């Protein structure tokens, strides 16, 4: 009859546990190619922190002319983005476009830098700093790589950003409307119409300007009618435009600025 050997069992359990929690060590790979392949394997397994370790080391160690270097920056950006490190991801993508402008990944990386910055601007009412950075990247894609397969996508992203920029100014204008600071409100509402004329927020801003101009405390009926004329021309079938811009009665008071 065999006796139970608890010591041996504990040793085996410890060895198995140690193997499971073994850390990824870049020194275990004898060459840059081996480390690159290991980084790709870790990325494919969803071990993004390990992939970051591998690709980051490659960006330090590879010589400038090594064809693996732009790919190391690219996959470093992808791993950081997957790991929720979007600012660092954007910086990694930007390095591909800046340091290797003739590489086939340059336009891809510039577009992904824009995507990474865009993802960091979470609501229109928040600080638009990252939205501005995203905008600059998408514009660069169009300017530097007009024939890129990403050019159309960059245009769509720019249009989305315009809606958000317009929304931010519109909400600021409405904040001043609620506080009855009408002159300040009009500054922001006009800015939406001037800077983002192709957005839906431009239409909404014009409607709000009509309402502000018609307030008894303002009573700028001619200004209101001028905007209504533009609204009727641009949105002839819009129900809100029709309701807001009904022709004033013949005896309605009128005052200009």
UniProtKB/TrEMBL annotation:
NCBIfam families associated with the record: OM_YfiO
Domain named Outer membrane lipoprotein BamD-like: residues: 33-215
Gene3D superfamilies, alphabetized: Tetratricopeptide repeat domain (1.25.40.10)
SUPFAM superfamilies: TPR-like (SSF48452)
Keyword annotations from UniProtKB, A to Z: Cell outer membrane, Membrane, Signal
Classification via InterPro entries: BamD (IPR017689), BamD-like (IPR039565), TPR-like_helical_dom_sf (IPR011990)
Keyword Protein biosynthesis part of the UniProt annotation: no
Coiled-coil blocks: none
The protein's name in its UniProt record: Outer membrane protein assembly factor BamD
Gene it is expressed from: bamD
